[in-house]
Structure formats: structure tokens, C-alpha cells
């Protein structure tokens, strides 16, 4: 990250540069191979997911008017902003009164939206973000800029989630998701970052498959 971009990052999120821990050399090397796995698996996954995305996009439009896709700015690795795409699971005017932290049993969620959230189908278009390099298959879920700034000020160490690319799924998502507070999610995210290994990622991936099939622990 250049000096100018680094300065903007710390100004945007009120971070103290010396508070940022460094990833181990082993973790840095693993991230290189992780990117290769992301490209292969995301390509295969997107090809398989296209019919599913098409079907549920149609169901979303049938239930509520508006675009079936939802494009939103999120914060990625090192504080870089990017546009994340999802299948829309809420009413089109869900944030007419301003940004709101998503939670379990959110009244803004549609009937189709409740199903695609429970099964993670709403996340499938994010495979595009993985191919672009904005995201990884596994990592901390990307937050919106407004919440990243808020939680960075309120929760010590929250900015450390930005050491790695955000993911479609993560340790926090298979251990409670929407039922977790921001502090609890941070605990799981930092545990993931501090123990970044193939074994841990495989465990998260298998748990994610279990969530999709059974709906237990869905975020």
C-alpha cells in the first residue's frame, strides 16, 4: 500500500499504525497459494451457481419489485473500498431511514430473502468479487464503511480484521453469524487470522456446507 493510500486508510478509520500486527511469513506464503485456490474454486463455483442465481433472481422480482441484485460498498483488505454484489434479500426501501446493522428476524427481509439467507444463496454472486480479487472464499465478512468507522472507534482492534481479504464465509459465520455481537464476531475473525491454515479453512468450508444443507447456525 502506498504512503498516500496508507495515510488515507488510517485517517478514514482513525487507526493507530503501530497497533496493526503483522502476518507471519508462513501466513503470507499461505495467502499466495490461497489466491490460486480461490481462482480455481470460484470459477467452478460460479459456473455451477449461475442457474441457481437465475432462478432466485426471478423469484425475488416476482415477490417484490426492483432489481434482484444488490450492489453495496464494502471495506476490504487494508481498508480498500469495493462494490459487493448480492442477491437482494430485503425490501428495496430497506434503508430509507439510514444504514442499519442487520440482525436475526430482521423485518426488512422478504420471504424469498429469508430462504436465500438461510441457505447462503444470496452470497453466490460474490464469487465474481473473488475472481476480481476483492474477496476470498473464506475470511472475515466485509463491513460497510459506516460500520467499519463506528466499530473501529468503539471496539479495540476491530481494524485488524482488514489484514486479510474478506470472505464469502468465515469462522464467525459458522459460529452464530447474525446472532453474534460485533465484539463476538471480531473474536472469531481474529482467531481465524491468527491461525490461518489450510486445515482451519477446510473446517470452515465443511461447516459452511453443513449450514447450507441443514440451516443450522445460518448467519
TrEMBL record:
All copies of domain Bacterial sugar transferase, residue ranges: 34-213
Transmembrane segments: 39-62
Name of the protein described by the UniProt record: UDP-phosphate N-acetylgalactosaminyl-1-phosphate transferase
Single GO MF descriptor: phosphotransferase activity, for other substituted phosphate groups
UniProt keyword list: Membrane, Transferase, Transmembrane, Transmembrane helix
Family recorded in the similarity comment: Belongs to the bacterial sugar transferase family.
Keyword presence, Membrane: yes
Lineage: Bacteria, Bacillati, Bacillota, Bacilli, Bacillales
Annotated source species: Mesobacillus campisalis
UniProt cross-references to InterPro entries, sorted A to Z: Bact_transf
Amino acid at each position: 500500500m502506498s504512503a498516500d493510500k496508507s495515510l488515507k486508510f488510517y485517517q478514514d478509520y482513525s487507526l493507530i499504525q503501530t497497533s496493526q500486527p503483522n502476518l507471519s511469513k508462513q501466513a503470507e506464503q499461505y495467502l499466495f497459494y490461497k489466491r490460486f485456490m480461490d481462482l480455481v474454486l470460484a470459477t467452478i463455483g460460479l459456473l455451477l451457481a449461475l442457474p441457481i442465481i437465475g432462478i432466485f433472481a426471478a423469484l425475488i422480482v416476482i415477490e417484490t419489485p426492483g432489481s434482484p441484485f444488490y450492489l453495496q460498498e464494502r471495506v476490504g483488505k487494508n481498508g480498500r473500498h469495493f462494490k459487493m454484489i448480492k442477491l437482494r434479500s430485503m425490501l428495496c426501501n430497506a434503508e430509507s431511514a439510514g444504514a442499519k446493522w442487520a440482525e436475526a428476524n430482521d423485518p426488512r427481509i422478504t420471504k424469498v430473502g429469508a430462504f436465500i439467507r438461510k441457505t447462503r444463496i444470496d452470497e453466490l454472486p460474490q464469487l465474481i468479487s473473488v475472481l476480481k480479487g476483492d474477496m476470498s472464499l473464506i475470511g472475515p465478512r466485509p463491513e460497510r464503511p459506516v460500520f467499519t468507522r463506528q466499530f473501529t472507534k468503539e471496539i479495540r482492534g476491530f481494524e485488524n480484521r482488514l489484514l486479510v481479504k474478506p470472505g464469502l464465509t468465515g469462522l464467525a459465520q459458522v459460529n452464530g453469524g447474525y446472532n453474534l455481537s460485533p465484539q463476538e464476531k471480531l473474536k472469531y475473525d481474529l482467531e481465524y487470522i491468527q491461525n490461518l491454515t489450510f486445515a482451519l479453512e477446510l473446517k470452515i468450508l465443511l461447516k459452511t456446507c453443513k449450514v447450507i444443507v441443514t440451516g443450522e447456525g445460518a448467519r
